[in-house]
Amino acid sequence: MCGIAGFISFHHAPPAREAALARMLAAQLHRGPDDGGLVTSGPASLGMRRLAIFDPANGRQPMVSPDGRHHLVFNGAIYNFRALRPELAARGWVFRTDCDTEVLLAALALDGAAALPRLRGMFAFALWDARERTLLLARDALGQKPLLYHADAAGPLLFASETRALLASRHVPSGLDPAAAADFLRWQSIPAPRTLHASIRSLRPGEHLRWQAGRSEVSAWWTPTRAPSASVPSPAADIPSLRRELRARLDDSIQAHLAADVPVGAFLSGGLDSAVVAALMARHTGPGLKTFSIGFEETAWSELDEAAATARHLGVEHHPHIVTGRAVAADLDKLLGGLDQPTGDGLNTYYAARAARAGGVTVALSGLGADELFGGYPSFRRLPGLARWLPVWQCLPAPLRRLGLAAFAAGNTTSRKLGASLDAASPAALALLQRAVLGEDAIARLLAPSTPAAGTAITGEHPATAALTNAWTAALAARPAGAAPPYALLASLAETTGYMADVLLRDSDEFSMRHSLELRVPFVDLPLAEWAWSQNPALLYPRGGAPKAHLAAACADLLPPALLTRKKRGFTLPFPRWLRGPLRPFMEETLGSASAARTGLFDPYMPGQLWRAFRDGRDDRAWSRVWSLAILVHLANRDTKA
Q1: Residues paired with residue 219 on neighbouring β-strands, in sequence order
Q2: pLDDT at residue 80, as a whole number
């Protein structure tokens, strides 16, 4: 796990590039406190900050091939590196270390980008080929590790793990992207390839970038259309065999994610997903496993008792921590100062990661991703009905649709989200719109009339829509004659490529790395995901069944009986109370007219109006809209000053 950076240019001398690179690496010290280094080869200067996980003594980066041709900087973990190593050695590679970085270097040196589908893990890397004078940047299929870049029309290319590092180079403009601000208001994140900064782009999950002679080209090496669901029938003949196979695959993923030469622990909430991860881990690590949970003084939100009960059942060493609104308010400068991109989520990860690092582990496993794969969200149940009604809605006369949208917009949070969904032009767009936070009318009112995005149609089209549409078309073509459309599969792909990639995984990486903790997510494992998507959707996501019923049944023998009958509740923080209480001064100042006006993006008075409507109202579910808006206003002002 590292922070990586690079500066490739024919027009900047090595000392200028290396000075910029030193600033970029200093800005990412938290990502790699154990080691650092940089190397220059021709027009390319590469650097890294390392958090040592495998072979701490020998896995230094940048890593250079024995012939001096290939130079690699790498952020992530390749879980199958020991399985790949013998084959690469048989092809002539003489290994000098026992780390995954050298296995990745060997695979790329021998096979180039063709090696990517064989990698099991999370990764973002840069490979410089000194002979061909080409750079390859790549990001893992599901988007666990970030990779951002600036490509100047005159030729230079800079890349890093964080936008703050690119800005620290002093070669990347800090101007904001109004369209990205509109994206954030809609999705509570900025979907790749955009970032908050107009000059900085992000590789999307499953993409790589090739740079040569000052020109760069981005393309996908993996998309959801490659999931076996498009053509492979379900291998499970019945539910018992499906559950046995699921258990075996979960256990395989856990074993892969346990690989490390440093202490490994687990996040443990009161729910099913993290309990499954901890239970399977405990079978391999024994009672010495350390687990970490956070809870709150507000008992209606806290799951500390449930987490403690699971820990006792598993016999693990459990470490609970209470987070208060007062503590968050006191930590606010530190929290906001550490943000790289705006987000409306992730504070739970920040505090859980801090507890885990203080508790003596360098790697922690999380239950993130189970809801997306196994039907844990309401979208799995809502989507079929909404998709059936969408053609009817689209056939209504335009004046009638406008009246209906106005009625939805005047309702509560659920009503507004339903109205936003009706803008969908296809089932794929409809699936993604389940995660919309603000509708187009609300976004247009918040943005200043002078903001470029306010003067054009804001379509709400998610960057993943095209790939998701292709996957949906392939899934429809592959279904048996007379079978119902596999809407649950569409929901799973949408949640994975949208909300999980843009919000959950991005926040997990950023907030865990603030504490130099490597966070691993065994449910976000490409072999496991592709297997799940290859199943008969009616079997894996039964209509009317309990969410994640097969996941619970597959591991029932390991879990506390009370957990299996407990009603699902999402893990949320007591933000409605905190925002009206200890965080209120921050909200009042940040969403005030003077602060909003300084951004140059917003109508000076609309953010405050939205805040007051929440502060004085009873719709607690609207907290995410005002909190996200405050984060965006704060970062826009901070980065404009930079």
Answers
A1: 208
A2: 96
Task: Record the pTM.
Answer: 0.93
User: Would you mind telling me the total number of residues written for the chain in this entry?
Assistant: 642
Distance (Å, whole) CA 451 – CA 505: 30
Q: CATH number of the domain at 204, please.
A: 3.60.20.10
> Tens digits of per-residue pLDDT, 282-306?
999 977 899 999 999 888 888 899 9
Distance CA 625, CA 619 (A): 11
Q: Please give the angle made by the CA atoms of 602, 607 and 608, to the nearest 5 degrees.
A: 135
Q: Which of 101-105, 437-441, 453-457 has the highest mean pLDDT?
A: 101-105
Q: Which has more pLDDT, 567 or 529?
A: 529
Helix, strand, or coil here: 403? helix
Together in a domain, 149 and 286:
no
Q: CA geometry: angle at 507 spanning 422 and 526, to 5°?
A: 80
CA dist list (Å): 332 to 328, 506, 585: 6, 20, 11
Taking the CA atoms of 348, 28, 193 and 639 in sequence, report the sign of the dihedral they define.
positive
Q: Which domain holds residue 585?
A: 574-642
Instruction: Assess contact for 514 and 340: CB atoms under 8 A.
Output: no
Specify the amino acid at residue 326.
R
Distance CA 260, CA 33 (A): 17
Total domains in the chain come to 3
Whole-number Cα distances in Å, 273 to 47, 322, 413, 516, 551: 37, 21, 27, 24, 9
Q: Which residues of 504-514 are buried (b: 16+ CB within 10 A; e: fewer)?
A: bbbbbbbbbbb
Cα–Cα dist 620/336, whole Å: 23
What is the 3-state secondary structure of 573-621?
Answer: CCHHHHHHCCCHHHHHHHCCHHHHHHHCCECCCHHHHHHHHHHCCCCHH
**Confidence band for 232, pLDDT divided at 50, 70 and 90:** very low
Cα 185-187-193 angle, rounded to 5 deg: 100
* DSSP state letter for 119: -
Question: Quick one: pLDDT at residue 530?
Answer: 92
Tell me the C-alpha distance between 353 and 292, whole Å. 9
One-character DSSP codes across 322-346: E--HHHHHHTHHHHHHH-SS--S--
C-alpha–C-alpha distance, residues 376 and 539, integer Å: 15
> Of 520, 540, 565, which one is at a domain's C-terminal end?
565
Report whether pLDDT(235) > 60: no
For 97-136, the pLDDT digits (tens) are 999 999 999 999 999 999 999 999 999 999 999 999 999 9
What is residue 299's predicted lDDT score, i.e. its pLDDT? 82
Closest by CA to 526, choosing from 559, 560, 501, 562, is 501
In whole angstroms, give the CA distance from residue 565 to residue 371: 17
CATH code, domain carrying 502: 3.40.50.620
Lowest mean pLDDT among 161-170, 213-222, 422-431: 422-431
Q: How far apart are CA 440 and CA 546, in angstroms?
A: 34
